[in-house]
Amino acid sequence: GAGVSQSPRYKVAKRGQDVALRCDPISGHVSLFWYQQALGQGPEFLTYFQNEAQLDKSGLPSDRFFAERPEGSVSTLKIQRTQQEDSAVYLCASSLAPRGRRYFPDTQYFGPGTRLTVL
Amino acid sequence: AQKITQTQPGMFVQEKEAVTLDCTYDTSDQSYGLFWYKQPSSGEMIFLIYQGSYDEQNATEGRYSLNFQKARKSANLVISASQLGDSAMYFCATDVSWGKFQFGAGTQVVVTP
């Protein structure tokens, strides 16, 4: 079946521009996650959705970052007034289960990422 | 807070040999999961294997096995019979509260003929 898809795969923005990154999770997956991966490092958590509800946005680095998932499927990560330090790969992941229980082992499946370069 | 440590920034391994990638973690939780992902140069994170903290047996998935030592808080990945296509970055991760993953810094594996 189809995996997680992200678009665009590559985005070049001039400093100060706004960008929007799209994520299409696996059909039926309740949970959706955004991560930021700087060059040579592991992914860092940004935000988490359960259906359309954004339950955790503790990883968003500034108020220039905004994410939404209005119908509980496709999600968009928006970055306003981009800065050079925003250059990174933005990864989206989805998992089947909600996080209602304290612990439920649930694999996250990742998309190919969007490589954002801010000039 | 959970912490994941991968101490090997890079490794070379010959084709058909086995390689062990180290991962240690620090958590006070009783229930947690440990995950390994592969990230080739194309950038996609590919799920390899999972180990639950209450699983008594080490997880295996084809050529991948996880050497889980709970008392030592280590979850090393063993890749047997390495192939050229195994060349990639490998990340260890654990699920912190409410499902978000925390990743280690990764280990770059290069398989040579």
Task: List strands and helices in order, with pairings.
The complex is a heterodimer of chains A (119) and B (113).
Chain A: E1 5-7, E2 10-13, E3 19-24, E4 31-37, E5 44-50, E6 53-56, E7 65-68, E8 75-79, E9 88-95, E10 109-110, E11 114-118
Parallel strand pairs in A: 2-11
Antiparallel strand pairs in A: 1-3, 3-8, 4-5, 4-9, 5-6, 7-8, 9-10, 9-11
Chain B: E1 3-5, E2 10-14, E3 19-21, E4 24-26, E5 33-39, E6 46-52, E7 60-61, E8 64-69, E9 74-79, E10 88-95, E11 101-103, E12 107-112
Parallel strand pairs in B: 2-12
Antiparallel strand pairs in B: 1-4, 3-9, 5-6, 5-10, 7-8, 8-9, 10-11, 10-12
Task: Describe the model.
The complex is a heterodimer of chains A (119) and B (113). In chain A, 0% of the residues lie in helices and 46% in strands. In chain A, the strands form 2 sheets. In chain A, strands 2, 4, 5, 6, 9, 10 and 11 form a 7-stranded mixed sheet that branches. In chain A, strands 1-3-8-7 form a 4-stranded antiparallel sheet, with no helix packed on it. By secondary structure, chain A is mainly β. The mean pLDDT of chain A is 91. Chain A has strands spanning 5-7, 10-13, 19-24, 31-37, 44-50, 53-56, 65-68, 75-79, 88-95, 109-110, 114-118. Chain B is 0% helix and 52% strand. In chain B, strands 2, 5, 6, 10, 11 and 12 form a 6-stranded mixed sheet that branches. The model of chain B has no long low-confidence stretch (mean pLDDT 92). Chains A and B meet through strand 4, strand 5, strand 9 and strand 10 of A and strand 5, strand 6, strand 10 and strand 11 of B.
Topology of chain B as a string of helices (H) and strands (E): EEEEEEEEEEEE
What proportion of the residues of chain B form beta strands (DSSP E)? over 45%
**Helix/sheet category of chain B:** mainly beta
Oligomer: heterodimer
Number of helices of chain A: 0
Terminus-to-terminus distance of chain B: 41 Å
Q: State which percent range the strand residues of chain A make up.
A: over 45%
Shape of chain B: globular
Mind summarizing the main beta sheet of chain B?
Answer: 6 strands, mixed
Radius of gyration of chain B: 13 Å
What is the averaged pLDDT score of chain B? 92
| Low confidence ranges of chain A | none
Main beta sheet of chain A, described? 7 strands, mixed
N→C terminal distance of chain A? 37 Å
Q: What structural class do helix, strand and pairing data of chain A support? A: mainly beta
Shape of chain A: globular
If you compute it from the alpha carbons, what radius of gyration of chain A comes out, rounded to the nearest whole angstrom? 14 Å
Name the pair of protein chains with the most residues at their interface, and give those residue counts: A-B, 31 and 28 residues
The number of E-state strands of chain B comes to: 12
